[in-house]
Amino acid sequence: MKTRLIFYMAFISLFFINCKRDSDNGYGVSRSNHINIAYINSSGENLLNPSTLNHYTADSIRIYYIVDGVKTEANFPKADYPNGFHIYQSDSTTYRIGVLLNSNNVLIKLNHETTDTIKCIIDHSYGNLELRKLWYNGVLMFDNDRPTLDITVVK
């Protein structure tokens, strides 16, 4: 009986040790699959701030993902941000838009006149999602040399 008890305890211990090892490797983790953007005008005013004249509103912004050449508007009805973005105030003067990078090609339609392009490299190894590089309107904005996910775009 004592031998069986030791066997079961050893088996259970190995099970938990194995689970811990997998989680340490980060399998199935989503890291850096978004970008936070502050838009400012030439006067330095934040264009997401509701008090700025002609600011971008959540109602006017649309996010599109291009996959295999097909443009699809973001639509995640059960997600926290069903339109693929959210606008938030990061400090007392800065408003940002957090954009979910659900594909390597993303279009941000800010209003009827302005549509910007994000191209990125996302690593999908081992079930992980990790942003490696990001270009905003053709300008490299994120990589190992520019590791912040908070960028500023002048309009």
Layout of secondary structure:
Blueprint: H1 2-24, E1 30-31, E2 34-40, E3 62-67, E4 70-73, E5 85-89, E6 95-100, E7 105-109, E8 115-123, E9 129-136, E10 139-142, E11 150-154
Question: Could you characterize what this model shows?
Answer:
The chain is mainly beta. It has one helix at 2-24; strands at residues 30-31, 34-40, 62-67, 70-73, 85-89, 95-100, 105-109, 115-123, 129-136, 139-142, 150-154. The protein is built from 1 helix and 11 strands; from the N terminus they run αβββββββββββ. Strands 1, 3, 4, 7, 8, 9 and 10 form a 7-stranded mixed sheet that branches. Strands 5-6-2-11 form a 4-stranded mixed sheet, with no helix packed on it.
Backbone structural class = mainly beta
From the alpha-carbon coordinates, what is the Rg to the nearest angstrom? 21 Å
Mean pLDDT over all positions = 84
Helix run count: 1
Please report which band the strand proportion falls in: under 5%, 5-15%, 15-25%, 25-35%, 35-45% or over 45%.
35-45%
Total domain units: 1
Main traits of this protein?
single chain, 155 residues, mainly beta, 7-stranded mixed beta sheet, 4-stranded mixed beta sheet, 1 helix, 11 strands
